[in-house]
Amino acid sequence: MVWAMGQTAEPDAVRDANARCTRGEHPHRAADPRVVAFYDAVTSHYPDRGPGAAEPGSPWAAAPLHAEADHIHMKLDENCADIVLEMIEKYAAQFHLDLLDLQDGSVYRAF
After folding, report:
1. Which superkingdom (predicted)?
2. Distance CA 53, CA 46 (A)
């Protein structure tokens, strides 16, 4: 997952935001431009809608991606190529987003 948090946000703030998402609590505001830019960049390589989402080689285990005003939740196929992970990290860094790995709960900034 990528989150649009403040630059001083602690990892627990990201985990708390994710807990709210899991409960279905999402902010009712305009989408953060960083989230929009990240979504546009990632899906320009790997579409999450339409015919491209189901093509062989798509990294998405679930499509479309869960996109909210402050985050994007990406469920990746277990055979997802490393290049996809590198791309996600690259765009997260470019757009100053926090990364949350749901497998181990780690939070880090790619920027």
Report:
1. Bacteria
2. 7
